[in-house]
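User: For a teaching handout, I'd like to show students what a predicted protein-ligand complex looks like in token form. I'll give you the sequence and the SMILES for zinc ion. Please answer with just the structure.
Assistant: Understood, here is the input followed by the structure.
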Amino acid sequence: MHIATFSGRTRLFAPALSVLLSLIAASPNAQSSTWLDEYRDAASKLIAESQSGRFAWERLALLGDTFGHRLSGSDALANAITWAVDEMKKDGLENVRAEPVKVPHWVRGQESLEITSPHRSALTMLGLGNSVGTSPDGIEADLVVVRTFAELDAAGAGVRGALRYADGVPQIPSAAITTEDADRLQRMQNRGTKVRLRVKMEAKFLPDADSANVVGEIRGRERPDEIVVVSGHFDSWDVGTGSTDDGGGCVVTWEALRLLKQLNLRPRRTVRVVLFTNEENGLAGGRAYLERYRAALADHVMMLESDSGVYRPTGFGFAGSATARATVQQIATLLRGIQADQIGPSGGGADIGPSVEAGQVPAMSLEVEGNYFLIHHTPADTVDKIDPADMAKASAAIAVMAYVIADMPERLR
Ligand SMILES: [Zn+2]
């Protein structure tokens, strides 16, 4: 009899128990799932909309194919900025504008490197950004191969310079060579071969140029002055097309707003996309944003930057209070379906850095599975390295995170 009674009670309570268990499985605590439930439908729709085509990838391909690289001060960057403003307006974003920023204008010019002795042989080189140039005849000198700064110091005063142009030291031209050529020169030195090299570089700075941060918004329906920023940097180095660094970051953050617009999702607070100028060789765009919005930083709820490439997203880095982190972790559970629900120990970005620091604004970065340092700042940084499906997921992840933070009743703190 006892056994039978026990079975009966089990059957009676089993449904209630399973509901309770599923609530616990869905969220760290049952209460959190209640407020998140309101956003499950929107999150699913944003993810589905992002994956309905390859809009983000096509836009990134168009950007790179049309304008090429976007070095600060170049006509390409200026024209791409004009294009982005027009496109954001066509997307239906609000308050679209180009906010003027003066940027450094470094130009590479022609450059070459060759072995002149023991036998003439051309090498592949790339002058480092912001480097000074050489005289028109170039510099011819003996080769010294060093592998570390310690070895450079040990090589003596004859090879000393400053690679970072500190005040009061001579500015020397700086360039990178391929690992293949570096190995070749190392072997020649190891054999005791006396090698002479000639380098010519026309690199120089022109007067500062006019540029701009591009801004577009979905205005908040209740608290429009409270701002959630998503961003990337629109400038690039002058090799490749800057598709990974950081055209992709610009397009996926921009795409997050386009997806909200497409689905008619207008959050309580404003979501703003910023395409910063001049991250690569000056950070003028990030500093200009701080100066323009210093008084409004207290109303910046969160700032996110995507500048680690747009490979498969794994989630976000986050920097802010423990309470805010817990909330962000709950929101990220909405991204489990696309495996983008991890929240890392730190977050931020170069362009949002000045504002985040000055305003103590919670900061996030898109985290991805992939290493863009393998191709960024090289001719290989082109759109063919990027998977349209990865960009769609990255766009959706940013859209869901930004939307919920902008819409939830309580401000992220
Ligand atoms: Zn970058």
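For the handout, you might add this sentence: The CA atoms of residues 316 and 366 lie 5 Å apart.
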